[in-house]
Each structure stands twice: as C-alpha cells, then as structure tokens.
Write a structure and sequence with these properties.
alpha+beta, two-stranded parallel sheet
Length: 393
C-alpha cells in the first residue's frame, strides 16, 4: 500500500532543473540520506519480466502480495500514470561490528541488523516526507512517497538511477555504502534530469552465493525465497521444513550472511542514524529469555521494531529452532512448557527442539504423555517423526 502523502501542488519560484536537483541533494544530505539520484518511471528494463519468471516458478512462497500486485509492480506508471520522475535515495544501516560474529554464540539468538533498531519504515518515511515537501516547493508539482510498502520495484529503480547495482544476491550494492541501504522513492509529476544507471561491479566474485546456508540462489542474480532464511523466519507463516532447521542455526529473525560477506562493505561506514542502533531487546538476546514470551510480553519487548510484525507465534517458532540447534540442554526446562502452547506452530517446533535437547527417558515420557492427546495433524506428525528418530538413534 502507498504511504499516505500530500499530492497538492505548491507555487514555486522558477528554477533551472539542474539547480533544483542541486538543492534537493543538499537537503537530502542534511536529512542524513545517502545520496539522491533520479530516474524515469520506464527505466527498469527487463526487471518486470524477471519478476514474472520469479512468480511463475513459485519462488515467492507465501508472499501472495507479490503476485496480486504483479501487473502494477512491473510498470511504475501503473502505480501513478502522471509521474514523470522518480527520486531514489537510501538510508544507511551499516553495522559497526561483524553481524556474523554472534552465529557462534548458540545459546543466544541472532537478529538481522536491519531489525535491531526502530522500524525503518517509520524513520525513513519521515525523512522522505520532508524531502518531498522540498520537491513540491521547488517544482510546483505533485509528489508521492513510498518506503517499501507499495507495488514498486525499488531495487531496479535504484540501479537505474545510479544509486547502486543489484548484486548476485539480488540486493542493491553501493560502492560507497555496501549492502546496507534502506531504499526510499519519491514520485513526482515534475520533469527532472535523470542520472546515469550504475554498472555491475560484482565481477567474478560470488561470496554471497557460496555463503548461503540453505542454497537459496539457484544461480547468480536469482533468488528462491522459499529457501531463504530471511523469508523462512520472517514472511513464512507455516511450519519450517526439517531440511532447513539445522541450517538456520541461531538466526531467529532474518539472515545477513549474503550481505555481510560482500567485499564492497569495506567502504561502508557505520550508520550514523541513532534510531537504528540495537537496543537491549534485540542485541543477541538469550534464547532462555525469549522462550518464555507470551503475546503481551512479545509486543512490549519488540514494540517499534520490525520484529513485532511477525507476531509472537512465528517468532517463538524461530526461537525454538535456534534452541534445538544450541546443544544447550539447560534450555529443556523452557522448551518443555511449550509442548502444550496454544499455537500449533509453537507446539510443533517445541517437539522438534525438545527431542534434540532432552535425555532419551525425558523425551519418552513426554511422548507417552502428550502425543496421543495432540489433535493437530502437523504437531502429531512432528511427534511421530521425533519418536522415529529417537527409536532409531
């Protein structure tokens, strides 16, 4: 859905387009935005066709909204036929430390860098609205602001504007800011001079492809979201398939592996946006603390962060997978109560985690007590699978 913005015209003192762009770039810098580039609505080339191929292959998984709005997403003009220029900008969330370091700390959860601070939609939207008002004031034309919430292909547009290029992991890469940019777009009816598109600087490097724990890249520049840990732990609403659980490790919300290994990150400076700094709730939290969260405690703990939108049940599902991968038998006392949780999504992963952590006699007792009483088919299947593994161990 488009962000609500004013589209009224503003009187403007006539200025040369180049002079307007200079002023807008200055204002963007004052707002802490990383560069400002301009492109046309029809500049995305073959990106729309590649989107259709992605959807036809079923690689979008549960993200039905991609398919529902595919026609509008393929053509920016369909979103707003009157738009003549698109201003693309970014806001850095580059971390100050190695985001992969916590993967070895298996009794704590690892949360993607982007989700450790305040929700970027709120932070970036405010800055974009201020900049959009400047666009309207300088041009006298209408504007609309979008921050990853409308059927708009931001990454191809950012590449067309020269802000960066889409790397082999399909994310935008900047020579200055590496892989760590939130993207924002301002559409306007003003006619502004477009910038040159950025060229691909990936070369022969394929570190992002090689590092993926679940082999989510069928080929360079292609992503199968159904295998992506970020998708599985954030967007996927159902049970996570057994083939991915061990590979998830202690990643409880998102995955930064393919971004973190990009060599272009060596040029990125840590983000200066204070609102993106990790808070106590999101900084490598102990799994033991997260396993006790009910819905109220979950909402309170993660209020204002992107994590809240996943909901308690999906999040605890992820935490249970991390617990099962931890090898920390002390977590059994936190996992066992979740065998009777109200959510089948949670109960199923509690079975899986408990079997991996508990002593054989403790698992056998739980199986005898709970398995026959379970009424959910998926949870019953988890009990059966766990019992078979335990019997054959």
């Amino acid at each position: 859905m488009p962000m609500p913005t004013s589209t009224s015209k503003h009187p403007a003192t006539p200025r040369a387009p180049d002079a307007i762009v200079t002023l807008l770039r200055q204002r963007a810098g004052e707002l802490g935005l990383c560069d400002l580039r301009i492109t046309r609505p029809d500049s995305i080339g073959q990106a729309g066709d590649r989107l259709l191929q992605f959807l036809e292959a079923g690689r979008h998984g549960d993200m039905a909204w991609l398919e529902t709005a595919a026609d509008r997403r393929r053509h920016p003009k369909a979103l707003w036929p009157e738009a003549r220029s698109i201003l693309m900008t970014g806001l850095s969330y580059a971390p100050s430390a190695d985001p992969l370091a916590n993967l070895a700390n298996t009794s704590n959860g690892t949360i993607s860098v982007y989700a450790q601070g305040r929700d970027y939609h709120d932070v970036l939207k405010k800055k974009l609205k201020v900049l959009a008002q400047q666009v309207a004031a300088l041009t006298g034309q209408e504007v609309k602001v979008f921050t990853d919430t409308a059927p708009l292909m931001e990454k191809p547009l950012a590449a067309a504007s020269g802000l960066g290029w889409q790397g082999k992991h399909t994310n935008l890469v900047s020579r200055t800011h590496g892989s760590w940019l939130f993207l924002g777009a301002i559409l306007t009816t003003a006619e502004l001079p477009p910038d040159l598109a950025e060229v691909d600087h990936c070369g022969s490097c394929q570190r992002c492809l090689d590092v993926c724990p679940t082999a989510a890249f069928p080929a360079a520049y292609q992503l199968d979201a159904q295998r992506c840990i970020a998708y599985l732990t954030i967007e996927h609403k159902g049970h996570i398939a057994p083939e991915f659980r061990a590979a998830i490790g202690n990643r409880i919300f998102g995955c930064d592996d393919c971004l973190a290994v990009c060599p272009w990150n060596k040029f990125a400076q840590a983000s200066r946006e204070a609102q993106f700094a990790a808070c106590e709730a999101t900084r490598n939290p102990p799994l033991a603390d997260l396993l006790t969260l009910d819905d109220t405690a979950f909402r309170q703990r993660f209020s204002g962060t992107p994590i809240k939108r996943a909901g308690r049940d999906r999040f605890v599902r992820n935490v249970l997978i991390a617990a099962g991968n931890s090898g920390n038998s002390a977590l059994c006392s936190r996992v066992e109560p979740l065998l009777t949780d109200a959510s089948p999504l949670v109960r199923a992963m509690a079975v899986w985690a408990f079997r991996r952590l508990a002593r054989s006699d403790a698992f056998a007792a739980s199986y005898a007590h709970y398995a026959d009483k379970e009424r959910d088919a998926d949870v019953r299947q988890e009990w059966a699978a766990a019992h078979a593994l335990e019997t054959n161990a």
